[in-house]
């Protein structure tokens, strides 16, 4: 009985997530439209053809005729990949936020305060500085720049926090956050400076920078998808395995130690994993505004502070909201380009976030 | 009997006399201490004046191909002559009035930002608290965005004051400074909104967490809105001048507004604020003790807190409107000043103002010599990060350095 109730608890968010995923496949964005029947047929055809290819069936030989009979076939396939990355990114960034909020018990805590989004922006700017007009053809190198810049900023913030806590004898979280926000301020100014430098080379390069950092292009090549999946797998596994113990980091150190946990080590693991989760999402899907801060906060209001529930709900809700916002934004064309998603996210998430904070007033004081 | 009366008299006299002596001693000690404590302030003042005259009178920028000592000396001599003539009232030659007004603006901006940082550090009892916490910068960005959307056409040409003084004079005061006014209004409205929302959320109590949260959310919202507008402008026309106007506000510079007229406007806004803060320095000490302690000392905490926020907002908004965003000054300077003169606001505030002026003059001079005057924010941010890491390496945490 208890087990069944527990199962039903994770069923609702999972269903929401899956429903939103399927819904996002049904939109057509090149010319806005809603085509569930065609999308289903296209996906079914794709699956049949893939199986036929693997099993070397004669059906595969007729593939051109079959695809000709399916309108919007390739568009649906591109949408599938897009939706996969989007859903993964939304889930990852919110999960990262949930890890940070559980550890620091503060609605402001999110991986971004360690300088991750700044690092990604700086990486994009440096990448465009390095490859100038060739940068759109050298997208693979972008990951190196982005990951390296973000890693440098995060290591700087965490290392300096460690240094700050050295005379007290333990890791000082507040100092690390202070240092992190200062470091990311500096990174922001540096990224801004490189934007000026980019315009000195060529004004149109700034457009490329904007599109990269706002996530207008979601890259869905094989290499990109593999890298994305790898980043998620590396960071998601420890978080899911430690989901029971991460609750212990919310207690003070002595109580956690009395429960047989090692709060310092757990926090370190949580911080690294949360950062990598958010980093992967931001690099592959662009800026997402206050999503990583708002969704875990809302979930904590709705489902309590238990990390096992919060992590599931944050991931599913975050993924669903990002999918929804992207689907809507990708159909709004102004000046011939789709709308960036971060402003839409702010509009969608803000009311719930404000409500959550005003209801939760005692939780964070 | 007589002897006993004398005895009594002596006994009653003695404590009074002792009191007097002790009072005299304490008075002497106080004056000596006062003088000794003021020594750093005097030294900073002298240094500031020295730097001001050196920079305004002697500093010249020459291109590498003209780098001859005799040439540089000749230019410096000329500039010094112009400065002297300007000061004694023999008229301004070689644009020296702009040099002087620019340096005075730099000193004012430094003083304003540093005082802002020092006061916020004390009021919020947090070294990170800065004007940006309450959304001043985002408000300025929003005001600037509105200015660009409402008053600037895509075909506008950006011209510098020094190139077109006659043209500028043909405009009215309002036309010339509409950007500054919009930025100022944006800053005020933003802070009013953030503080209002935070106060409502905290049920009419000022709560630091709500202030920070509301500020963060507002900043993030404005950030994404500006990003959206900039994105569409870029997509329509990558060579659009308006994008540059939007971006320029985030990178502080003293090259956009530096005429005596700007200086007068900046003085009118900044000097009263600095005076008010100096007058209130004793009460700021109380506020730094904490809300409850201040209330028991008879300070109307809430009203005073709002007053401090209003004054600080005016200062920060003025600097943003005329010079753009200059980060980290409010972080570095109070830290350094606190180490020199201690945490009492009676000395900390003037010391911060003087040090802020000194720092910004130095930064501007370095930027001038290296040709980076359009990127003052880059210099101050780099310096701020270095100071922060140094503060960590010397063993005192950032937080404790503030306490």
Topology (SSEs and partners):
The complex is a heterodimer of chains A (365) and B (403).
Chain A (H helix, E strand, L loop, with lengths): L1 H24 L1 E2 L4 E2 L1 H20 L7 H6 L4 H32 L11 H16 L7 H26 L8 H29 L1 H12 L7 H20 L11 H6 L4 H23 L5 H13 L3 H23 L3 E2 L2 E2 L2 H19 L6
Antiparallel strand pairs in A: 1-2, 3-4
Helix pairs in contact in A: 1-4, 1-13, 2-4, 4-9, 4-11, 4-12, 4-13, 5-6, 5-7, 5-8, 6-7, 6-11, 7-8, 9-11, 12-13, 12-14, 13-14
Chain B lengths: L1 H56 L11 H20 L7 H29 L11 H16 L13 H6 L2 H4 L1 H24 L6 H29 L4 H8 L11 H20 L1 H9 L1 H6 L4 H23 L5 H13 L3 H26 L5 H18 L4 H5 L1
Helix pairs in contact in B: 1-15, 3-10, 3-11, 3-13, 3-14, 3-15, 4-7, 4-8, 7-8, 7-13, 10-13, 14-15
Question: Can you put this structure into words, describing what you see?
Answer:
The complex is a heterodimer of chains A (365) and B (403). In chain A, 74% of the residues lie in helices and 2% in strands. Chain A contains 14 helices and 4 strands. In chain A, helix 1 runs parallel beside helix 13 (307-329). The model of chain A has no long low-confidence stretch (mean pLDDT 84). Chain B folds into 3 domains: 1-49; 58-94; 95-402, Orthogonal Bundle (ABC transporter involved in vitamin B12 uptake, BtuC). Chain B is 77% helix and 0% strand. The longest helix of chain B is centred in the N-terminal third of the chain and has 56 residues, at 2-57. The model of chain B is unreliable at 397-403 (pLDDT under 50). Chains A and B meet through helix 6, helix 7, helix 8 and helix 14 of A and helix 8, helix 9 and helix 16 of B.
Features:
heterodimer; A: 365 residues; mainly alpha; ABC transporter involved in vitamin B12 uptake, BtuC; two-stranded antiparallel sheet; 2% strand; B: 403 residues; 3 domains; 77% helix; 0% strand; globular; disordered C terminus
Using the coordinates shown, work out and report the CATH topology of the largest domain in chain B.
ABC transporter involved in vitamin B12 uptake, BtuC
The CATH architecture of chain A comes to: Orthogonal Bundle
**CATH architecture type of the largest domain in chain B:** Orthogonal Bundle
Q: Could you state the CATH homologous superfamily of the largest domain in chain B? A: ABC transporter involved in vitamin B12 uptake, BtuC
Quaternary status: heterodimer
What's the helix-strand series of chain A?
Answer: HEEHHHHHHHHHHHHEEH
- SSE-based structural type of chain A: mainly alpha
How much is the radius of gyration of chain A in Å? 22 Å
């Amino acid at each position: 009985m208890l087990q069944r109730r527990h199962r039903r608890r994770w069923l609702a968010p999972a269903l929401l997530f899956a429903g939103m995923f399927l819904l996002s496949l049904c939109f057509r964005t090149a010319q806005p439209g809603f085509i569930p029947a065609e999308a289903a047929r296209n996906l079914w055809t794709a699956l049949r053809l893939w199986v036929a290819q693997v099993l070397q069936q004669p059906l595969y030989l007729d593939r051109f005729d079959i695809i000709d009979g399916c309108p919007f076939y390739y568009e649906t396939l591109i949408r599938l990949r897009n939706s996969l990355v989007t859903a993964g990114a939304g889930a990852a960034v919110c999960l990262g936020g949930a890890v940070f909020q559980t550890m620091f018990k503060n609605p402001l805590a999110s991986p971004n305060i360690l300088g991750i989004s700044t690092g990604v922006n700086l990486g994009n700017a440096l990448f465009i500085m390095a490859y100038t007009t060739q940068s759109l053809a050298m997208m693979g190198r972008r990951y190196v720049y982005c990951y390296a810049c973000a890693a440098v900023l995060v290591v700087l913030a965490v290392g300096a926090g460690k240094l700050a806590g050295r005379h007290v004898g333990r890791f000082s979280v507040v100092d690390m956050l202070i240092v992190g926000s200062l470091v990311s301020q500096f990174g922001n100014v540096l990224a801004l400076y490189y934007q000026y430098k980019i315009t000195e080379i060529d004004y149109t390069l700034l457009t490329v920078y904007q599109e990269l950092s706002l996530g207008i292009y979601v890259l869905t090549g094989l290499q990109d998808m593999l890298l994305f999946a790898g980043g998620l797998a590396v960071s998601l596994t420890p978080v899911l395995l430690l989901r029971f113990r991460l609750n212990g980091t919310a207690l003070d150190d002595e109580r956690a130690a009395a429960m047989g946990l090692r709060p310092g080590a757990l926090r370190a693991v949580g911080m690294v994993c949360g950062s990598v989760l958010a980093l992967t999402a931001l690099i592959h899907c662009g800026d997402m505004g206050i999503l990583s801060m708002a969704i875990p906060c809302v979930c904590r209001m709705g489902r309590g502070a238990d990390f096992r529930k919060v992590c599931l709900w944050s991931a599913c809700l975050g993924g669903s909201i990002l999918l929804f916002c992207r689907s809507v934004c990708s159909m709004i064309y102004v000046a011939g380009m789709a709308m960036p998603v971060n402003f839409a996210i702010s509009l969608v998430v803000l009311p719930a976030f404000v409500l959550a904070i005003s209801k939760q007033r005692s939780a964070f004081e | 009997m007589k002897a006993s009366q004398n005895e009594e008299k002596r006994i009653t006299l003695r404590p009074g006399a002792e009191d007097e002596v002790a009072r005299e001693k304490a008075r002497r000690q106080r004056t000596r201490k006062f003088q000794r404590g003021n020594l750093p302030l005097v030294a900073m003042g002298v240094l500031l004046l020295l730097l001001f005259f050196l920079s305004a009178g002697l500093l010249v920028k020459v291109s590498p191909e003209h780098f001859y000592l005799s040439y540089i000396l000749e230019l410096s001599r000329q500039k010094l002559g112009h400065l002297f003539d300007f000061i004694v009232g023999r008229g301004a030659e070689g644009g020296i009035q702009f040099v002087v007004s620019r340096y005075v603006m730099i000193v004012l901006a430094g003083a304003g930002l540093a005082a802002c940082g020092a006061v916020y550090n004390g009021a919020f009892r947090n070294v990170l608290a800065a004007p940006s916490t309450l959304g001043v910068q985002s408000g300025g960005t929003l005001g600037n965005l509105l200015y660009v959307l409402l008053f600037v056409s895509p075909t506008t040409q950006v011209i510098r004051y020094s190139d077109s003084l006659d043209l500028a004079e043909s405009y009215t005061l309002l036309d010339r400074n509409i950007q500054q006014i919009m930025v100022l209004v944006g800053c005020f409205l933003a802070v009013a909104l953030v503080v209002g929302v935070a106060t409502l959320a905290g049920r009419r109590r000022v709560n630091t967490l709500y202030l920070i949260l509301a500020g963060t959310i507002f900043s993030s919202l404005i950030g994404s809105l500006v990003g959206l507008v900039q994105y569409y402008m870029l997509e329509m026309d990558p060579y659009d001048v308006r994008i540059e106007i939007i971006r320029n506000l985030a990178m502080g510079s003293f090259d956009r507004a530096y005429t005596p007229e700007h200086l007068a406007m900046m003085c009118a806004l900044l000097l009263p604020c600095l005076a008010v803060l100096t007058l209130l320095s004793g009460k700021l000490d109380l506020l730094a003790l904490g809300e409850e302690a201040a209330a028991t000392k008879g300070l109307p905490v809430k009203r005073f807190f709002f007053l401090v926020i209003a004054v600080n907002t005016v200062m920060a908004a003025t600097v943003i409107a005329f010079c753009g965003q200059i980060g980290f000054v409010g972080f570095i300077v109070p830290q350094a000043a606190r180490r020199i003169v201690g945490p009492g606001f009676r000395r900390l505030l003037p010391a911060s103002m003087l040090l802020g002026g000194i720092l910004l003059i130095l930064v501007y001079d370095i930027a001038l010599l290296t040709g980076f005057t359009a990127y003052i924010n880059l210099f101050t941010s780099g310096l701020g990060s270095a100071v922060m890491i140094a503060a960590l390496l010397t063993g005192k945490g950032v937080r404790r350095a503030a306490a």
